[in-house]
Amino acid sequence: MSVTIEDLKQAVDSLFPNPKAITEEALQRACINRHYYFIYSTMLEVINNNFPQYDMGRNGSFSNTGSHDRVFRVFEEIAELTDSKAAKRLAMQFTDFLTKRHKADYRLDETFSSGEYAQCLRYADRIPELAQALIDEQDSN
pTM of whole model > 0.90? Predict the structure, then answer.
């Protein structure tokens, strides 16, 4: 059995129907994890469907780095080649979201602040919008 991006989104929404109301740090960390992986999967789909020149496989584009790093490297390269502000913002926000997700998942001895949590929720909303803006830019060129 496989799942779609929409299935992942429904799962996140079902698990965390009101993420802004979550105040317990452990639940915030879990919420960010699920939101991040939904965004990661969404960005892979965006790249595969709209930027097929990038091979996201292990031996493809940017094969010398991890699979999550490949996503923001694609957007960094698009920004460099096209001077796209949407691509630049997308790369920066995805990178910071990844960094914060790492902290939420692996640095359990460090506080994951309410500000970091709120920023991650904003990224979960904003990154798909930036991806759509980038797609629209590419389609108009």
Answer: yes
Taking each helix axis from N to C end, the angle separating 114-140 and 67-82, rounded to the nearest 10 degrees, works out to: 50
For 5-45, write each residue's pLDDT tens digit: 999 999 999 999 999 999 999 999 999 999 999 999 999 99
Neighbouring C-alpha atoms within 13 Å toward the C-beta of 17:
1
- Cα angle, residue 105 at apex, residues 101 and 107 outer, rounded to 5°: 105
Instruction: Using the CB atoms, write b or e for 43-81: b if 16+ within 10 Å.
Output: bbebbeeebeebebeeeebbeeeeebebbbbbbbbbbee
Query: CA distances (Å), 104 to each of 32, 33, 48, 117, in order?
Result: 7, 7, 28, 9
φ, ψ at 65 (rounded to 5°)? -140, 175
d(CA 12, CA 28): 12
- Residues, the chain: 141
